[in-house]
Every structure is written in C-alpha cells, then in structure tokens.
Amino acid sequence: MGMIQYRKWDEGDIKNIIKLTDMYISDGFYTDEYLRNILSDTDHIIYVCLSEDGIFGGYYYGMIAGLDDAARILHLDTSALKVIRDQIHRNKTTLVGIVKTTVLAPDFRGHTSSNMLMDILMNWFHDKNVRSILCEALIKPDKKINLKTQMETFGFIPSVQINKPWQSIQSYCPYCHQMYCKCDAVIYLKEL
Fold first, then answer.
1. Residues ≥6 apart with Cβ < 8 Å to 89
2. Which CATH number do you get for residue 139?
3. Roughly how many angstroms between the first and final C-alpha of the chain, as a whole number?
4. In the chain, how many domains are there?
5. Within 13 Å and on the Cβ side, how many CA atoms surround 13?
C-alpha cells in the first residue's frame, strides 16, 4: 500500500466519508448537509487517511459537547449518565470529547492507520483542553467489543454498559444484521 497520508478533512472528502459510512456503518448515517454544516464548526473534527495514490482509506470523527448533549449523542439513559457524571466529576468539566465515528476501508485495517488517526484525534482533544473523552463501542453478537483493543491501547477504560442503545433508531447494524440494532454497547472513558 505504501505511504499513507493523514490530514484534516476538507469539502472534497465529503463524498468519500458518506460512501464509506454507507458501506460500513449504515446507509444514510451521515448526509451531505450534516457534514457541510460541521465542516467549519470548531467543536467538530474529522481526520482522514489516504494512500499515496490518493485512495480514500477512512476517517475518525471527534467532537466536543456538553455532558447532557453527549448523553443524547451516545444514547445514555439516566443511570448510565449518572455513572459517567460521577467518574468525570473530579475534573469538574462540563465539556467532554466524543470519539463519534471511526471507519476504515478493509485495505487500511491492520496497518497503523487506526492508531495514527486515534493519536491525531487525541492530540486535537488535548489542544482543545478537553479533559474527559468518551467513546461508544458496540458489543457484537459474539460478545466481542468493537474497538476494544484500540480503546485499551489509548488508555480508555470501560465505564458503563448500555443496553441496545440503537434499538429505537432505524439504522442497519453491520454486526447483528438488524435494521434496528439489537447490540449492547460499552461506553469507554479516557481522562487526560
């Protein structure tokens, strides 16, 4: 595959982000309008990777939100939100970072792409003075946790498990193969 380049996204990446998201997460998960709206929002960032021939390989999307907004975005119920709030209370933070979406094409998996993109994203959170970062990882039907190894590598700890957070949202799940996802999830937390 050769040298892989990593950079902040731009308008020219929108079609590729939508294409990969439709293929590996769910059709229509992100729209052109949504991505254009967050392009200039300083609380949202997407980093992309490309092969040396310019083939789009994937992206990591991070955002900053208030804890109540994060609860909505991560589908946290009241009890899960309380657990998270208690864990991050010592930082006295009202804003948290969210690793919102991670997508890599198969040819880019198993290389350093995922770790490079996560490292770049963690540096962005650090530069934004975010002290607590959350990430939702689905538990596949075989009980393996998506992103578990990467979360542990980057110092995230499992914070709370939530039951079927995507069940009420019509969005095809690539793991349980249901239109309304039946997978449980783990919320990972990292303190900077």
1. none
2. 3.40.630.30
3. 33
4. 1
5. 24
